[in-house]
Design brief:
Length: 205
């Protein structure tokens, strides 16, 4: 993820001939990485998430970088893979839009079908994902709404790395970024296979 650009402040001397010392440049964000059940996710000390609790992620800065991190963290957690203790509150509290209810319904159905097929206890996670979040590309950004394409990579059944890009919309609401549910509540409608990272920005280590 790109760190915020340095802010250069130019202070001119006043008419009386005195001068002032330029303000120091803005501090760059420190990025660390979290292993979220096999998915590597970036964390920023400036842009969030500021709250990590019970596999939930909240508290993102009202900035471009905060919007990107919110799209990534909330989008990943709004998935049946982690079980209802994660996807239920994530979708209920952090996903908005006309298809949010449909997304919750479909995620519940997918989870239950996968859980029964794997013979897992009710409420348990479905297992690790083994996915890398590799890169992103902005589609649009404004103060209270943004759209970003996020690239995920992982092995297929033959062990070959495959990539897909998922378009995620976020809006600033009630003091934090929220993800807008995909069309018909289906992430498949927002994802496409990707052959090249040309035009995308890689997340920095």
């Amino acid at each position: 993820m790109k760190a915020p650009a340095l802010v250069l402040v130019l202070l001119t001397a006043c008419a009386c001939g005195t001068s002032t010392t330029p303000a120091p440049p803005a501090r760059q964000a420190r990025i660390t990485w979290l292993d979220f059940h096999g998915v590597r996710l970036p964390l920023s000390d400036l842009d969030g998430p500021r709250v990590l609790d019970h596999d939930r992620a909240k508290g993102f800065s009202h900035t471009r970088e905060g919007a990107l991190l919110a799209a990534l963290h909330i989008g990943v957690r709004a998935n049946s893979q982690w079980g209802p203790t994660v996807f239920e509150p994530t979708i209920t509290e952090q996903v908005v839009g006309p298809d949010a209810g449909r997304l919750l319904e479909q995620t519940r159905t997918t989870y239950e079908e996968s859980r029964q097929e794997a013979g897992l206890p009710q409420g348990s996670p479905l297992g690790k994902a083994y996915v890398d979040e590799e890169a992103y590309r902005w589609e649009s950004y404004a103060a209270d709404a943004a759209t970003v394409d996020i690239v995920s990579a992982g092995p297929d059944r033959r062990g070959t790395t495959v990539r897909a890009t998922t378009r995620i919309q976020v809006v600033w609401r009630d003091g934090d970024w929220r993800v807008v549910a995909p069309l018909d509540g289906d992430w498949g409608n927002a994802a496409t296979e990707l052959k090249s990272l040309d035009g995308y920005t890689r997340f920095k280590e």
